[in-house]
Design goal:
six-stranded mixed sheet; 16 strands; Aminopeptidase; 308 residues; Immunoglobulin-like; single chain
Amino acid sequence: MSCKKAPRITNMLSKIVDGEKGEWLSKVVIESTKPYTYDAGNAEDRVIFEGKGVILNMPEGTTEVNDGLLREVIVKQDGKDNVLVKMMLEHPAEFRLEAFEGFPFRLEITLDRSIITKLFSGKKIVIDPGHGGEDTGGKGPVSLQEKDVVLPMAKNLEKILRRASADVVLTREGDVDISREKRFDLVGQAGADIYIGIHNRSCVGRNEDGVATLYAPTNKQSAILARCVQEGLIKKLKAADRGIAEQAELAMINEVPAIEAEVLTITNLVEEVFLRGLTVQKRAAEGIFNGLIKYFAQNGTYSKGDCS
């Protein structure tokens, strides 16, 4: 009887990276104790990896990714010594599979995100971090001010959008007070395709929580955009869904879709703690970005359902 142990898959992770030639990529890394036989192929909405002669030494199941291209990764032991990994995609994408010797043995599956840059190329987006200066906005139970948390969210979103080839205009980059009229005027001056205000919810009841998205009542596309962004935020933040609603003041912007994302409820003690964290500030920007991807893609050939 052979005492040779079969290779074991011990870890799996995903991340967004820049390629050596400037490509924008989603990467899935599969680590194991030793090399084994493998194969991979793609269909319209997934890449399927099969490992042969290998045992899964980590939990089976589904891991949500929601990076705008890669929705989730499903891994399971398929028989005694086969492992299946399904990478479920929001849009079709080319992939590349590379092996790296050593310990651990590493397989890297890179997915081309160029479909996303094509969606955003030529788009101009105004991002408006609410309040500023003497206008502090909402306040949390432990003194966090809305103006201070929405600005880093806006800058995170700006960074992602620029990487996706969009043109971006921020209404403020520091702690300054700008009138609503001046903020809205920038939409026309910049020739923007979309306006996105970033705020937090404020409620009288301290137990109120969750995420909402408001939209301009004068533009039919605004409600569609709001649904897309609300969905993106809920998936990224795992927060209570407080829905979408009209915002009368946004009626001043009627030439392009206009929304205000109310990211978590600052007057809720638990969500105030979350809002202080850099991880939540980053995830909020990613959630808005994912909503924009879905909005721009929904009428094209690569759409996976719509927001209407």
